[in-house]
Design a protein that fits this description.
Radius of gyration: 21 Å
Number of helices: 11
Shape: globular
Largest sheet: none
Helix content: over 70%
Order of helices and strands: HHHHHHHHHHH
Amino acid sequence: MVDELKARALRGDGEAEALLRFLHLLRSKRYLEARRYAEGFPEGLRARLLEGLARLEEAPEALEDPLFLAEKEVVLGVGRALRGDKEGAEGHFQKALALDPEHPRALVNLANLHLERGEVAQAEALYLKALRLAPDLPLVHENLAALYRKKGDRERMVQHLKKAQRLKMRPPVLDPLTGQEKRPFRIPLWALFLLLALLLYLLQKR
């Protein structure tokens, strides 16, 4: 599903690009922001996305929408892990990654299971992959801190703990049009056109 959306987005499909942004919010478990972003879609698609979000929180096992399948597996996996079924949890996280290899929380949760078994190298590789995919996800830094504590690397442990804390204290502000993080000094498009018109006017006066 993700590969199909990426291919469509590369061909200039605006809806596919918007759905990829929606999936980015799902992967980070930013459900509230995903719900707000979904409100900007056309009526039929908006209803589909909102229904999927509701099912994720109320009855994830009943979800069959391809857009939500990877997130569903992560949610079910976390539930199993909390109940002590580590083997079942691992199966769900593996399924999630088969559906969406770039799902950072699936990677982190799978890494946690490796770390619990003492498989430090495997855990670190998964955490670092999640970090490359989602450098602003506090969960990644918290778990990397736990890893480096286990390895006795105090400096990197503290570094990731501080980063996680900063990210939690300064949650990103989303642009309501794109669902992406706002840039602090973004120049409006109309201002760029105005500057261009002024430049052309000055050049003609020479």
